[in-house]
Design brief:
It comes from Parabacteroides distasonis. InterPro entries: DUF3244. This is DUF3244 domain-containing protein. The protein is mostly beta strands. The chain has one domain. Helix content is 0%, strand content 56%. It has no helices and 5 strands. Strands 1-2-3 form a 3-stranded antiparallel β-sheet, with no helix packed on it. It has a two-stranded antiparallel sheet with strand order 4-5. A hairpin with a 2-residue loop joins strand 2 and strand 3. It starts with 13 loop residues before the first strand and ends with a strand.
Length: 64
């Protein structure tokens, strides 16, 4: 039996995490963020498997 590594998951597996003010949904290789409230400063970082930042963006979100 192959050893399962941290972060391994079945391609068809859905995951979601709910914590106000954001809900995170993972489907295959996509990550969707659903915001319930406005956020003045949101820092988004994309990191590679070694932990190095490959993209970084600071945004604000206004819910009307």
């Amino acid at each position: 039996m192959a050893e399962e590594k941290k972060g391994d998951r079945d391609e068809e597996e859905d995951r979601s995490i709910s914590h106000a003010p954001v809900e995170v949904e993972m489907l295959n290789d996509e990550v969707m963020l659903h915001f319930m409230t406005s956020i003045d400063e949101l820092l988004i970082q994309v990191v590679n498997s070694k932990g190095a930042i490959v993209h970084e963006e600071l945004i604000s979100i206004t819910i009307r």
